[in-house]
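User: Please predict structures.

Assistant: First:
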Amino acid sequence: MRQPFVSLTAPLVGLAQASVDTDQIIPARFLTTTTRQGLGDKAFFDWRHDATGQPIAGHRLNGIAGQGPFILVAGDNFGCGSSREHAPWALLDFGFRAVLSTRIADIFRSNSLNNGLLALEIPADIHQQLLRAEGTAITIDLAARKIRAPGICPDFGFDLDPFARLCLMEGTDPMGYLLGHSATIADFEARQRSEMQ
């Protein structure tokens, strides 16, 4: 079970580049593991390291790695490219709990929500205001479905699939949700069997 996401107050990290694909989020050569731990070190690896694999001195992402939680304000069409759960795993392990963008690739959004990373599309004008406020903390209130960014922009609401929202707030995923109802499912199946006899 992961940490429930009900409300998050965290600083913004801006990444305005459009069409950041999953191979930029975590290069394919690092997809050799089925565990999540340590993948944060590989997030945006080719941006944060030189050709020899050494960290680039002064790169702003190197300065914050592992110090989250953070809210990523990403450029348009974030998470495009191939489907890989390692991408949200890497972002979560790096310290991101949420990604806000004007457009998020469908498969990446689904993988993110299923793995505990909130991925929300926001209006372009608010997106620009948040990008300009990098380092400022804002609050994402999942219970109220509102984002509060005082001094940056007015509070605004957002839509999110109700089941994805429930799973995030309970700190579970679809399979965990079903397993949490095992007794109810077993009771239903037993009643069905007895009615068929």
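Second:
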Amino acid sequence: MSVSRVDVTETAVRLIERLKTIYGDLMFHQSGGCCDGSSPMCYPRKEFKIGERDVFLGVVADCPVYISGMQFEYWKGAHLTIDAVKGRGSGFSVEAPEGVRFIIRSRIYSDEEWAVLEAQGEPPRGEQLVG
């Protein structure tokens, strides 16, 4: 059994693909800020500095996804899914001018999924080489 920590909806994939034609390779970072800062932020891959404590959750639509170390402690028991909805998000995330915003949907892992994740150990921290 394989268990991922992050996934993406088809709606978000379509938006990501459109944004890639404008900005090139992208990445996501889920911080712990207030307001829009608690939404997943999408950046051109080379324009956001990943810290040593940031946790690598995985790759969605060829985009690496990170979460701040402190936020990971709160969210590690939940599977995260990046989605896109109508509305204005933060001016820092590349989708803001499009009239849509990325959001996080979450669900708690089942006992079986949690056992697999615990056996895998903690996910890596810091920037990871991705595609």
